[in-house]
Specification:
The protein is of the alpha/beta class. It has a single domain, classed as TIM Barrel (Alpha-Beta Barrel). It is built from 12 helices and 14 strands. The strands form 4 sheets. Strands 3-14-13-12-11-10-5-4 form an 8-stranded parallel β-sheet. It has a two-stranded antiparallel ribbon with strand order 1-2. Strand 11, helix 7 and strand 12 form a beta-alpha-beta unit. The protein is globular and about 55 Å long. The model has no long low-confidence stretch (mean pLDDT 96). Bound molecules: flavin mononucleotide.
Length: 367
């Protein structure tokens, strides 16, 4: 039986355990969407020998930004900030991938160059929030992307991957989940296009495959992971045949020799609490179509994480909220130590509080 604390391989990298940091938007970057010292400390605290961190959703372009305070990787000036984060994590013996994202319609004209409308596959009303200089605001209506816009966005993912590589990241993860641009193309509730990027599930998966291939052209497929949320509804998502859509996406991604497929269980919606008693199902379902490493996420406890890895339905488990509150989470899980509780009020934005001041387990207990 495989344990959470046995070694495993991700692309060219050997990990010594399977407790990963899930990508978490914390909105603590500095002016210019550049990571600063707070972020260096946050990631360094969560790095452990042989562990894997997936850094938060990071905009591939100004157009892709949906949250003021979230970092970017669209300008060369952001490379140096990220390099400090990467170097601190590597010094602790961990690997770190950067999650690349484009918010698409989950944005606001105040965040867009020249106050333009956010971009989306189709100009459908979206009932959700974006974080602007005036706080959380309803997203503004999006404009349907032209084929040229799509080509530009794919190029932005490629350029972002190249900057991530220049910053020293071990790889990148494409954010195909939670109702952002890639997910908006994939699921038919948000994609009404009639060209090569809409209609059939093959066409709706094209943007996902194109941006993944663009990142792989920089890093090689074995250093690129993809995150999906099968049946996910966060960000106003819906699909008329979710099982078939995600089976197709997983099967097509399987051809690319990727580092991993990262699956968010539908029992969680974004950062909300899990549906009481709901079991993990999605990782097991997609295992049939994707034969590389699978990372499961969404509502795991130390016990259920151990169980899914032992059952062979996932190779790693990514933790979000527990990792926010427990910088030494792998250590605590390994030794059966109690977990700190998380404070939801400090999830998004603010200062060091609720970010880098959660205590590690006392050394005497840890021994
Ligand atoms: C504060 C917060 C920020 C998040 N930001 C991201 C993000 O940037 N990218 C992403 O793919 N998921 C994001 N998520 C979702 C988490 O990665 C994870 O899927 C979710 O929290 C469920 O896992 P958990 O039950 O272990 O917390 C976020 C969740 C939280 C709580």
């Amino acid at each position: 039986m495989t344990s959470l604390f046995s070694s495993t391989t991700i692309g060219p990298y050997t990990l010594s355990h399977r407790v990963a940091l899930a990508p978490l938007t914390r909105m603590r970057s500095e002016a210019g969407d550049v990571p600063g010292s707070l972020m260096v400390e946050y990631y360094s605290q969560r790095a452990s020998e042989g562990g894997l961190l997936i850094a938060e959703a990071t905009a591939v372009s100004v157009r892709g930004n949906g949250y003021l305070g979230a970092p970017g990787i669209y300008a060369d000036t952001q490379i140096a900030g990220w390099k400090r984060v990467v170097d601190a994590v590597h010094a602790k013996g961990a690997r770190i991938f950067l999650q690349l994202y484009h918010a698409g319609r989950q944005s606001h004209s105040d965040l867009q160059p020249g106050g333009a409308a956010p971009l989306a596959p189709s100009a459908l009303a979206f009932d959700g929030l974006a974080h602007t200089k005036d706080g959380w605001q309803s997203a503004t209506p999006a404009r349907e992307m032209t084929l040229h816009d799509i080509e530009v966005a794919i190029g932005e993912f490629r350029d972002a991957a190249a900057r991530a590589q220049a910053a020293g990241f071990d790889g990148v993860e494409i954010h195909g989940a939670n109702g952002y641009l890639v997910d908006q193309f994939l699921q038919d509730g948000s994609n009404r296009r009639t060209d090569a990027y809409g209609g059939s599930r093959e066409n709706r998966a094209r943007f996902l495959l194109d941006v993944t291939a663009a990142a792989a052209s920089v890093f090689g497929g074995e250093r690129v992971g993809v995150r999906l949320a099968p049946g996910g509804t966060f960000g106003g998502m819906s699909d008329s045949d979710s099982s078939a859509t995600f089976a197709h996406a997983a099967r097509a991604l399987n051809e690319l020799g990727l580092a991993w497929l990262h699956v968010i269980e539908p029992r969680v919606s974004g950062s909300q609490e899990i549906v009481e008693g709901a079991h993990a199902v999605a990782a097991r379902e997609l295992r049939e179509f994707f034969h590389g490493p699978i990372i499961a996420a969404g509502g795991f406890t130390p016990q259920t994480a151990a169980a899914i890895v032992e059952a062979g339905d996932a190779d790693l488990v990514a933790f979000g909220r527990h990792f926010i509150a427990n910088p030494d989470l792998p250590h605590r899980i390994r030794h059966g130590l109690p977990l700190n509780a998380y404070d939801r009020d400090t999830f998004y934005g603010g200062d060091h509080r609720g970010y880098i001041d959660y205590p590690a387990a006392p050394q005497s207990v840890a021994a």
